[in-house]
Amino acid sequence: SSKQAATAQNVSPLLRSRRSFASARPQAGRPRPDPRPSPQGYYTRRGGVGESGDFVTSPEISPVFGELIGIWYVSEWIATGKPKAFQLVELGPGRGTLTHDILRVFNQLASLLSKCDVSIHLVEVSPKLSEIQALMLTGEKLQSNPEDKSAYMKGITKTGIPIFWYRDIQDVPQGYSFYLAHEFFDALPIHKFQRTEKGWREVLVDIDPEVPNRLRFVLAPSSTPATENFIQPEETRDHVEVCPEAGVLIQRLATRLEKDGGAALIADYGHDGTKTDTFRGFRNHKLHDVLKAPGTADLTADVDFSYLRKMTQGRTATLGPIKQREFLKNMGIDLRLQVLLQNSQDTTTQEQLLHSYDMLMNPKKMGDCFNFFALLPHHRLTHPDKKHNPQSRAPLVPVAGFGELLLK
Fold first, then answer.
1. What's the pLDDT at 54?
2. Domain 25-186+243-281+303-381: top CATH class
3. Closest Cα to residue 120, out of 177, 47, 58, 63?
4. Average pLDDT in the 348-361 region?
5. CA 266, CA 185: separation in Å to the nearest integer?
6. CA distances, 226 to each of 178, 242, 379 (Å)
7. What's residue 283's pLDDT?
8. Which of 94, 97, 196, 220 has fewest C-beta within 10 Å?
9. Looking at residue 295, what is its pLDDT?
10. Helical segments of 201-319, H only
11. What is its main location (predicted)?
């Protein structure tokens, strides 16, 4: 309507996803002029993760999830010739549960990793969550060091590995690194666009003039800078969500992997360029109107993996996305479950194991909702002998998780 068009001219672009309305999940895509997150932010005030929060993640459901991801990184380390050092870098580590489970695997394989210099690097802007992570991973309440220009906090994990905290991925030191982003990209800000008779229009948030203290969605009256820059020319959908920060972050990951080696594993719910309107909110584990009580709910949008693939700009190879149940099955979750069930004499524990397995693997629960996607240097998937000797049959070590596990 003309009223909508008039009021839309002064509203700010849409939707800071989980960081909406001053929420404070790490702005990994760009440097922050002020490193202090807003005290009103969703993550700084509430935390959000776990049974008492607004949503539960896979690592909170079963430690097996983190164990298999830990094995994935060790497998890649072995496949690339066991470099003398690697950094494990997690983006938006939540309560630290996933890193905790990965560290347990590293500790169990200590003899294998004994000659490797391993360090942990967490990218987290929330003071509340970094405190929770420090307690879980080091057993101590660490003191923040504001004078340090890169890592604002550091310590030693319970298993004796150096650990560091950063506000931005660009502060993490260069070097052979394994990157991990579990339910991180869905929390980054999005722009929403709608195809109209007059061309693409951005969906914006406005104050409802008819209802006090209520927000509403409106269409921009004309093209915006985001409309001009973020819509792909070949786009066929009528409604599109684009996350520019995700594109910037992927480019930075791809550049680092191209230069230093390693791998990036991204696990999130999403699609391969097929879905349209996925922006939604969660509060107390139930769907929540994204425009109600700003800053009190977890806001999220499905990850467009086709966009992430495009944003690597060919610097790295990509694998996936594949469904979570396929990835975990390929990683040997069924075998791991049988071992745990055989070693457990407690009926309650066995029931919990089966319940958590069902949550992770059932297509109607997390099995088909979540996807795994990897970035790898091109040479990891192209045998060096092939360039000089195309007839070379020396087998490449397959990438774990993205192909069927063959037990010999």
1. 46
2. alpha beta
3. 177
4. 95
5. 8
6. 32, 9, 35
7. 92
8. 196
9. 87
10. 225-230, 244-260, 305-311
11. mitochondrion
Whether the upstream peptide bond of residue 39 has omega within 30° of 0, thus cis, is: no
In tens, the pLDDT along 280-304 reads 999 988 999 999 998 889 999 999 9
- The owner of tokens 């990036």 is 264
Strands 117-123 and 262-271: unpaired
Q: What is the DSSP letter of 170?
A: G
Average the pLDDT over each of 165-169, 274-278, 296-300, 308-312 and give the range with the smallest value. 296-300
Q: How many residues does the chain have?
A: 408
Furthest-apart CA atoms within the chain: distance in Å: 73
Give the DSSP letter of residue 234: T
Place of tokens 């920060």: 245
Q: What pLDDT was estimated at residue 395?
A: 67
- Cα–Cα distance between 174 and 151 in angstroms, integer? 13
SS3 per-residue string spanning 62-113: CHHHHHHHHHHHHHHHHHCCCCCEEEEEEECCCCCHHHHHHHHHHHHCHHHH
- In the DSSP assignment, the letter for residue 187 is G
Residues 182 and 57 sit within 8 Å (Cβ to Cβ): yes
List phi, psi (to 5°) of 242.
Answer: -125, 135
Q: What pLDDT score does 405 carry?
A: 67
State the Cα–Cα distance between residues 303 and 305, nearest whole angstrom. Answer: 6
Query: Smallest Cα–Cα separation from 22: which of 49, 1, 45, 2?
Result: 45
Q: With CA atoms as reference, report the closest residue to 304 among 351, 247, 248, 257.
A: 247
The closest of 130, 119, 174 to 152, measured between CA atoms, is: 130
Residue 21 scores a pLDDT above 60: no
Helical H runs in 187-282?
A: 225-230, 244-260
Residues 264 and 179: their CA atoms lie apart, in Å, by 4
Instruction: Estimate to the nearest angstrom the gap between the alpha carbon of 107 and the chain centroid.
Output: 24
The CA angle 63-68-72, to the nearest 5 degrees, is 145
Residue with token string 């596990």: 405
Q: Does this model's pTM top 0.90? A: no
